[in-house]
Amino acid sequence: MVLDQQVLLDTHVFLWAVRKSARLSNKVAALLENRSVVLIVPAAVPWELATKHRIGKLEAVGALLADYPDTLVRLGASTLGHTHTHMLTAGLLDWRHRDPFDRLIAATAIIEGLPLVTADAEFDNIPGLNRIW
Hints:
Number of helices: 7
Distance between the termini: 15 Å
Oligomer: single chain
Structural class: alpha/beta
Mean pLDDT: 95
Number of domains: 1
CATH class: Alpha Beta
Order of helices and strands: EHHEHHHEHHEE
Strand order of the largest sheet: 3-2-1-4-5
């Protein structure tokens, strides 16, 4: 493992990491435990969690949302805001996938040059994006 490697976490990986879910691959679980790896959570993650909680798709995340800043600290993760460049890239990305959260996370990974930690193989269809699973 490269010292001070930075990785971007997809929403489900963030949620599974916080919950210490067995759904994480062995590779990702080891990556998350390695303190020389910088875990970065894009701002799209709390937006997606809050939106899905509000519409009833993720009812069990209310406590996590209320404690979000402390949850980040416990996970040892940093945050990354989005810029107009991230937004424009997400909107213009030549990818048939329509989910706005995924599009923004993909664009962020590309713009920032960060590997994306995600179980979603759909991200493999984006040139220039490195997926870790």
